[in-house]
Specification:
Elements (H helix, E strand, L loop, with lengths): L5 E6 L8 H11 L3 E6 L1 E6 L2 E7 L2 H14 L4 E4 L5 H8 L8 E3 L14 H11 L5 E2 L3 H8 L6 H13 L5 E5 L6 E7 L4 E6 L10 H14 L4 H17 L19
Parallel strand pairs: 1-2, 1-5, 5-6, 6-7
Antiparallel strand pairs: 3-4, 8-9, 9-10
Helix pairs in contact: 1-7, 2-3, 3-4, 7-8
Length: 262
């Protein structure tokens, strides 16, 4: 039997199943990799928003990661919601150049609820961006990182160069779902720029899109795919997931993790 590729997600929970580690594990499974999860925060949320957040004690959080790395080291890992500076300092100890690292800078939920504090945002920029194989911010998150409004393609180009050259990420995928067209921009340190445009669907059911896309990219990197190959598959996956959304809940419903077939 062929050994399974292994992916790890480090993020918060979503009891309604649309985002966070729940979405990540579904995405890993859909892409045929063995999924593991370490929890940063237990989040009471649903399609209507975030009701309550309980950040895990640092000792048990660190113990989760130690348990994983002592026994089943991942072939790739991703981080989602990291609520505090102290949680980021724990994660930083486990990041190595040998394991591809996907940084989904989860700062603001689809509902608009802020998920990390200001100190954590500063630490994300100072400690984690330089360790990332790829960082996957949407437009609001990109603006938070670079500190200026991102409206035009010129703004996106400028932001991409800053994230690569000043913050030190190996690559960045700036997701343009908040723009008029569903266009994403990939920048890699070797000078590569790729633009991915897909159909934009008129739907409110986009809960967990960022988690899902970054998890699929993580799964593909765990298989040994290149950054560009992983992003291409991730883009196809999330397009189908939004197109065939199951329309669950009374608010911003989840995407369909079973829609993409290759």
């Amino acid at each position: 039997m062929t050994k399974l590729n292994i992916a790890l997600t480090i993020a918060g929970t979503d009891p309604s199943g649309g985002a966070g580690v729940m979405a990540d594990l579904k995405s890993f499974q859909a892409r045929g990799v063995y999924g593991m999860a370490a929890i940063t925060s237990v989040v009471a949320q649903n399609t209507l928003g975030v009701q309550k957040i309980c950040n895990l004690d640092l000792e048990i959080f660190d113990a989760q990661l130690k348990s994983v790395f002592d026994d089943i080291p991942p072939h790739a890992l991703k981080t989602g919601m990291i609520p505090t500076l102290e949680h980021m300092e724990v994660i930083e100890k486990y990041l190595t150049n040998e394991i591809p690292y996907v940084l989904d800078p989860v700062m603001i939920a689809t509902s608009g609820d802020r998920l990390i504090d200001e100190k954590a945002q500063d630490a994300l920029e100072q400690k984690l961006l330089s360790k990332a194989t790829i960082v996957t911010p949407n437009i609001p998150e990109t603006q938070e990182i670079v500190g200026f409004n991102v409206v035009t393609e010129e703004d996106i180009d400028r932001a991409g160069k800053i994230i690569l050259n000043e913050f030190g990420s190996e690559s960045v995928l700036i997701k343009g779902g908040h723009l008029e067209t569903a266009t994403d921009y990939l920048y890699i340190k070797d000078g590569t720029k790729k633009v991915f445009t897909s159909e934009k669907f008129q739907t409110k059911h986009t809960h967990g899109t960022g988690c899902t896309l970054s998890a699929v990219i993580t799964a593909e990197l765990a298989k040994g795919k290149s950054i560009e190959e992983a992003v291409i598959i991730g883009k196809k996956f999330i397009t189908e997931a939004i197109k065939y959304t199951p329309k669950l809940g009374h608010g911003n419903g989840p995407v369909n993790h079973f829609a993409y077939k290759d």
